[in-house]
Amino acid sequence: MAKLPSSRIPPSEITPREVYQSRRHFLQLSLGLAAGALAPGVGFAGDKLAGVTSSKYVVPDQPTPLKDVTRYNNFYEFGTDKESPAETSGSLKTRPWTVAVDGEVHKPKVFDIDELLSLAPLEERIYRLRCVEAWSMVVPWVGYSLAELIKRVEPTGNAKYVEFTTLHDPQQMPGQRSDVLEWPYREGLRLDEARHPLTLLTFGLYGEVLPNQNGAPVRIVVPWKYGFKSAKSIVRIRFVEQQPISTWMRAGPSEYGFYANVNPAVDHPRWSQAKERRIGDFFKRPTLPFNGYVDDVAPLYAGMDLARYF
Amino acid sequence: MKGKTVLEQQLVWIKTVVFLCALIPLAKLGTGAFMDNLGANPIEKITRTTGFWTLSFLMLTLTVTPLRRLSGWSWPMRLRRMLGLFAFFYGSLHFLTYAVVDQFFDWDGIVKDIAKRPYITVGFPSFLLMIPLAVTSTDAMLRRLGGKNWKRLHRLSYATALGGVVHYGWLVKKDLSNPIVFAVLLALLLGFRVLLRCAERNGRQRAVPRAAVPDSLTPSDSGVRKTSG
Prior knowledge:
- The structure holds two protein chains of two kinds.
- Chain A is built from eight helices and 13 strands.
- Chain A has helices at residues 17-34, 66-71, 84-88, 113-117, 146-153, 191-195, 247-251, 294-297, and strands at residues 53-58, 98-103, 109-112, 123-130, 135-145, 161-166, 186-190, 200-205, 208-209, 219-221, 234-240, 275-278, 285-286.
- The longest helix of chain A has 18 residues, at 17-34.
- Chain A is globular and about 40 Å long.
- Chain A starts with 16 loop residues before the first helix and ends in a 13-residue tail after the last helix.
- Chain B is mostly helical.
- The longest helix of chain B has 30 residues, at 42-71.
- Chain B is globular and about 60 Å long.
- The chains are: A alpha+beta, B mainly alpha.
- Chains A and B meet through α2 of A and α2, α3 and α5 of B.
């Protein structure tokens, strides 16, 4: 693939990660100390995640450089520009953090983030990420299948869908001071989609704790759906009987459906979905049905009209 | 006319400064591309930036007449052609970035986009409308067309600006704050003209003899750029 000459950056131009993170680290540590709780060794962006094993879910594509993965983000909680989250997400406090898992389950529970981290072995998975805006990346995520969590809370027979809720705190998330979206951010999956082994409860990328702008401390990643389906900075996972209404469905029902499966045959009114630009590439490439995960997930939608259930 | 030489001198300076300032966005994009400062998606950045400056220069061009009317200064009129041509310049870069760099001559895709994406459906003709305006921007063309026709033709700039703002509004996914700023500006600029027209009509009814010669074509408004569109 031809690349823009500008896509190569001399190493001297890159601020070493230790430098740009040390300040944030220091601030967070001071806050932790002030609260009387010393932060644990693992927990902040850039900290190495221990015991990460490899997995079979690795696409052969070249991963997108960390710099681009962490500075080109749609995370409206931190502003609507793609550069904003990297600049403004320092105010997010990822410790202490809890995730309430409740609704139609036999064993509802509020999990501490550290408990969640050690619930199942962490795997590295290299997934494609396709944004509805027709660009894409390849990201080495760290996490484990959401199914691991689901089986521990034992959904009842009424549980048909899962709803994810992002933190709502305009103090920590300055983008929420504007009503550009209806806060808190909500997303949902059908229970069988949530249980699919590809659906990843994600704590890190590139072997390290998630940077705040990528959805720290915990998010999901659903690689065969457009990026907005993968809720970030999750505080609640609720099992429900009715199909939840996601934030983007509320914002534009004709543009954003509940399923949002990557589909080159079904255009978004604003963007043709036939092609995509991989970040760093000059030429666009054809978009693959289900973002290339057709063998894994097509059976979930057997017999469904995907143009209707977009 | 002798007393005007000082003003002419100043005008050369003003024009030079405006010309150089108008090139700053392009220079920043150029150095950004060279230094790899355009972010993870440089093509998107170039498209957005050139689009933003197309609209900005359209707004500046449309500010000239209200500014002249409100201030009584005539020199802003002398900048209008340059501002308008810069709008066309950035508009062309914007379109070429889309057609050449983004779509890479995928004509099939471009035609589909024009037909199917409302923001492109309205954006593309808005760009095309600027072409006759740029072509007829010379003194010779003004003379050939005659002031009245030229003025009528160049009212297309209202349509271009309107189309450009709608294009921006429809393109944005959710955060409409920037398009709204442009929409408010355009409403003020076009609203001013409507008021002006009403006022002129009323004035004309009261002073019938003056109506024969429109304000903008009086000889005191020296030079060929004497229209007030």
